[in-house]
């Protein structure tokens, strides 16, 4: 039996009693302090030599896969989302990751060996998602999630490359947003006045506050004298767990003894997000009326009222649920006879109105909570009435005098 073993920890190649050629390569040190010596084998010496050289290169490049558990994609993603991610990202970001892992990635890719996953596997998976009816945005979220998860596996030595950085992500078509016209905004506000918490919709349509920002407003954030409201926090979508030991047979949110496991609000994430917004005099009047109505509700509810200081609440003082708020928005559109639209379209509308009014860009950015001018380009839309107005001004500037004298645009007589 040929033997080229080297006792000093260097790589060794030898022919075993089984007739195969074997190689041993020291690639580092294990957690317990002993040498991490890897084994490869092949039928011939040239084959095993090539494997040894490859392993040595991985060692020298610092990309040797970590020894220990052989991960599947499903096991790694589950471990990542349950043990690594919590507490490191915002609640909303975590929710996006968790849904992508549980609903899409584990069922679609979970059986693959982690180190055997290829870019083509991901690309075929994205196409299957869309063929099955998933929106491009959903497939793109799955791509972002697996890219972050594999990046963590790479940092921890479970992978030697992140194939999600190579795979082509699904193409996202930029959604065309059509802001509401002034007449539509007025119709929505007229309809909202007939409903409870009517001022909530004025904050969205007139000032462009995000849903979470409006629902997170507290009375201490409203300065009636100065005519401003301070945006300091955002309402989070509530998350519950069973308080009955999972015996009721319902989803946690419908458990009679449900327990809230997520805080109600979080502070705004950026300096631009923490801001003061101007309150039109009409809105100040409406807010004062709203506060009086809330005081009457508090008196009627008596001991059932939970006083947490929110501007917009349920009939018992609890902060509004974003999901319920969304359904109220859809109902408001129907009752006002206005075309269907996203709640976020109200934010586009408010920023476009500020453009129409000629508010300086820096002031618009402060009101909307933007940190870059690119956001203004994304949210402010040039509407047809704006174009018509500009067209009239151009016409008056270039042909106004000619028209008055009866000349056509081409310069001929009438």
UniProtKB/TrEMBL annotation:
Domain Core-binding (CB): 71-154
Keywords on record: DNA integration, DNA recombination, DNA-binding
All copies of domain Tyr recombinase, residue ranges: 175-392
InterPro entries documented for this protein: CB, DNA_brk_join_enz, Integrase-like_cat_sf, Integrase_catalytic, Integrase_recombinase_N, Integrase_SAM-like_N, Tyrosine_recombinase_XerCD
GO MF entries: DNA binding
Compositionally biased region (Polar residues): 1-11
Comp. bias (Basic and acidic residues): 29-45
Pfam families xref list: Phage_int_SAM_3, Phage_integrase
UniProt-listed PROSITE patterns: CB, TYR_RECOMBINASE
GO biological process: DNA integration; DNA recombination
Source taxon at top rank: Bacteria
Disordered: annotated span: 1-45
Protein name as catalogued: Site-specific recombinase XerD
